Amino acid sequence: MNDSLLSNLGYFNSLSFLAAYYAGDPIVLSSILSYERSWRSLIEEVTALKRLSEFTSQYFGVVDLDNLKRDENLTQHHLQSPHLLLKNLTAPFPHPNIIDIKMGTQTYEPTAPPSKQIREAKKYPPQSEIGFRIVGMRVMHNNNSPPSAGGGDEYTCWGKSFGFNLNTNEEVMRALMTFFHCDGGGGRSSSHYTQHILSCVIRQLTRIKKWFEAENDTLTFYASSILVVHDGCQNLCDHIELGDGASSVRQEPIVKMIDFAHVCRESGGDKGYLKGVTNLLNILEKIHNLEFR
């Protein structure tokens, strides 16, 4: 019998409960089994969520946005404009390339009104097959010298309409090749850098995939995204000069799950998200093999 069960009862109630338990009372025995199953499920879910936190941006608590603007105490008890405070994932990168990929085969909750379900499904019909959609991306222009050497610091941005027009795996693949600079225009050094970036992203996505396969059997993530960030200046050396003789080791790409406004508890986990991350991995591995075989 679980000791925590008895700890929630008073002294005399505990004695009565133990007496009924040892007497084999079927109702009490059934209650204990149900309690233990619930307790085990709770422990398993907490463990899975701790693992999930490895794939999300670091959380610093809830702050008051109005106080932030006034440079006052951010964490007072009565928040007028509460907002989550998360780590800025782009901060480690001097010239961040960023892509937002909305994951899953559908972006609406099962309880959404039929009108919303139809509206969301019409936005991007290929999502049910591809398993994800590129929401937007920002890519630094690929030139032969870093911005610090006078090479310029310009970006090209693609928004939602760009992603809505990618109707096949091949079109999505070309877009991802643009994001990772797989165009052969950066020279041999940038090719090695791109190979390294792709390998790191594939490794991190594989860990996320394994979580959905092996650990998640209770949660679905509707309209959630994966954010990928890497340094867009391919020709920087492995150590970035910071001035005064100091240097910093190049930051590896960051792959994180973001946007959790529509997470639902559903038995069986999230098959749609798993399909999306599996297909995304297949496409990235195909790019890697094409570029560096």
- Low-pLDDT residue spans: 144-151, 185-189, 239-243
Strand order of the largest sheet: 5-4-3-7-10
Structural class: alpha+beta
Estimated radius of gyration: 25 Å
Number of helices: 10
Major sheet: size, sense and barrel closure? Answer: 5 strands, antiparallel
Shape by Cα distribution:
globular
How would you describe this structure to a colleague?
The chain has helices at about 5, 10-20, 25-50, 65-70, 115-125, 125-130, 160-165, 170-180, 185-215, 270-290, and strands spanning about 60-65, 80-85, 95-105, 130-140, 155-160, 220, 225-230, 240-245, 245-250, 255-260, 265. It is an alpha+beta fold and about 290 residues long. Helix content is about 45%, strand content about 20%. It contains ten helices and eleven strands. α9 packs antiparallel against α10. The chain has a five-stranded antiparallel beta sheet. Strands 1-2 form a two-stranded antiparallel ribbon.
Give a summary of the structure in a few sentences.
This protein has 293 residues and is of the alpha+beta class.
Which features characterize this protein?
293 residues; alpha+beta; two-stranded antiparallel sheet; 10 helices
What topology does this entry show?
Layout lengths: L2 H5 L3 H12 L3 H27 L6 E6 H6 L11 E5 L9 E8 L10 H10 L3 H4 L1 E9 L14 E4 L1 H5 L4 H11 L7 H28 L4 E3 L3 E7 L7 E5 L2 E4 L4 E5 L4 E3 L5 H22 L1
Antiparallel strand pairs: 1-2, 3-4, 3-7, 4-5, 6-11, 7-10, 8-9
Helix pairs in contact: 9-10
